[in-house]
Each structure stands twice: as structure tokens, then as C-alpha cells.
Amino acid sequence: MSSPVDGKHKKTAFTQSAACHNFEGMAQQDLPINSSEEFVLSVCRRTFLSLWCYNNPRAKLGKELCDILVVCEPQVIIISVKNVRLREGEPTVEHDRWERKAIDDSVKQIYGAERWLHSATQVIRGDGSLGLNLPPLVQRKIQRIAVAFGGRGVVAVKSGDFGKGFVHVMSEHSFLEVLAELDTIAYLGAKEAFTARCSVVVEGSESNLLGWYLYHNRSFPGGADLMVVDNTVWQEIREKPEFKRRKEADRESYVWDRLIEELSDPKAKPVSGPGPTLADLELALRTMAREPRLARRMLGRGLCEFIKQAKAGKLRSRILVAPGGTIYVLVCFRADTDPGFWEAELACRCLIARHIVGHGDTIIAVGLSEFVPGIGSGSTLVYMHLPAWSASDDEKAAVMKAEYGFFMGADFQHRHDDEYPASD
After folding, report:
1. pLDDT tens digits, one per residue of 374-401
2. Do 345 and 324 lie in a common domain?
3. Is the bond leading into 135 cis (omega within 30 degrees of zero)?
4. Strand 130-133 and strand 68-72: pairing?
């Protein structure tokens, strides 16, 4: 089967085989939490996923740039972590000393890293190897986070512009709670815009401000010039039954996260040739990772159902349509089939899926083979961007559907779910 995509359509495809893949166990995900930097890195990987997170990246001449760098175009998040023990003694003196070492030094490191990144085009990993390309400067959106350990909740930390851009200052507890929630980037941006026009006083953890934001439909009040958030907001929201139901329902979304992690596994071995580059992989995986937590929940549930039915021999493929309009095609291949045919079949299925759905510029197909103990499983990823879809394309896709028999008599799944599920 030859690829049916002509030059006017943008198609990127990669086929890889990895002994470490185990897609049948995707519902299980555990991340280690040890030292302060490892803790922050694990939280970042849980939120932004591993492909986009770099611990101890380097600047020129091997100098450490920052503690953690997150790159997911167009966002670049610079994170500095300091663990400073608050000493006993005269409170004013000890608090000032702690702030200088735990916060001021982080801010200095963040601003220095940002200055160097202005002239950089690619991430340099801690071992000196090259990572992802950085977004172009004109499109780049910088977020700055200083995580201060050791204050014991005694010293109040405050975010703000320290002279060269807004820095989100958080304790280890508020960092975990903020990044564990949905739409983290949206919250950070909304907070920066709000504090630029309104004075904000937050009692206790930053989580209280996050709680207010979530409870008010992810927004801050308009027209206010002073906002005081007390220390009870976050706890009250966490105890609400609907909040607990949402957290439980979100567990299904981690299956989607695990799929992305497996597809971007650096230990994966290409079937032939040099294999895909990080930039190639990132084009498709970034789209998958950009799905909001609610969308990932629905996609994760659809993925689990697909794997169960495919394993039982009830189906080979399924179409899922995300709330944002991206079309996902899931296909299961037998372990003994020739991987050389996978890409062509997935490309055909992408076009047919676009024909069936009737709308959508981006189609991503994920091909998974059966898991063989001791060997692993294969995966194929195809990305298509088809903004110029025409009536002629529709006719060709219909012919392919009839010729190959793909998705005959099958319905695609356009899922809907409530962010805060109702009680049974």
C-alpha cells in the first residue's frame, strides 16, 4: 500500500520499535519524589511530561543555566529551586536572610538564564547533548518560577516583578498544588495579568489564590484594585464533593499522558534508518500534550476502551475526536505484521477519518502492535495537518474507504464529559 498523501498536504510519520513499550499497562504511572530538585522535576514531568522537561540544562561553556527548563512551544518556563533552612533566632533577621538565599538568589538565576536564552536556539542538556529547538523569539512566551523550600510556612512569599519580568514565587507545597491542577499555563498567565492591575494579598499558601481562580470559572475579578484572599479558600474547595469527584475522574486522563511518554521514550529503537528526530516527534506529541486535562480524561477513557476491545479481538481501529477538534485515529497491528505497511495504512485511515468526521485540520494516527513478553511492542505515529481540505479530497477519501474497507459501518467517538461529574 503506497502513501496516499500528495504534496499539498503536510504529513509527518515515524515508525519505531521499542522493547520497553508496554501499552497494556498504561493505566499505571508512578513518579519518584526524593530531593527538592527531584521533587520539582517529578511534578513538572507529571504536568508537562518528560519530553519537554530538562533538569540542570547548560549554557555555553557548560555552566548550569537553571535547575529545570520546560520547553513546549511557544512556552518556555524557567524554574529555579532553592532549599534553605530557616534558622532559629530573631525573626526579622532570619526571615530576611532566608529570603535573600531562597528567593533573591533564585530570581537572579532566572533572569540570568532568560538573558542567555535570548541568544540561544536549542536546549543544551545537562550532559552537553542537544535537546529540542527553542521557540522563535518573536513567538516565545516566558514564565518564571522560583520554588523556595525550607521556610516552614512561617515566611510569607510573594510573587511579583523583581525588575526584569514577573516571577512566580512558591513554596514547595503551593508549587505541587498549583501544577497538579489543570491548565497551569493559563493560570500563570492570568495571574500575571491580574496582579499587574490589582494589588493582591494572599494569606497562607498560593493555593488559596488558585482555589479562588478555579471556583470562579478560571477567572479573576474585573475592575478590582485590591483583592484579599484568606487562608481557608483552598481547604474549603478541596473538601467540596464535586471537587473530589473531579479529581477521581481525572485519573483516566493519566492514561493519555502515559501514551505520550511511551511514544517519546528515548530508549525506543527505530525499525530502520536513523529514526525520527526530537523535532519530528514533538510536532505530533506536542499536539497530544496540549489537550486540556478534561480532554485528556475523555481521550484516556477512549484509549483504554480501545485497548481492551482490540486485545479481545473485537476491533482494530477507532476514531476519537477531541473537544478542540483534533482527530485521533487508533489502530492495533498484529506483532507479526510488517511495520513497513503501518505508515501507509495509518495515512489512509487519517484521510478517511477526516472524510467521516467532516471537519478538523489536524489528524494524528497512533499505531500500536501487540505486546510480546520479552520483546515489547511497536508503535507508529503519523501527523497530518490538512487546512486546505477540498471536495475533491473528500471524494478521494470516500473511494479509499470503499476500496480498503476501513471504518466500514463504524461510528467515530466524539466524547463529552462534565469537568465536575454529578454524583450518582
Report:
1. 767 788 889 999 999 999 999 999 999 9
2. yes
3. no
4. unpaired
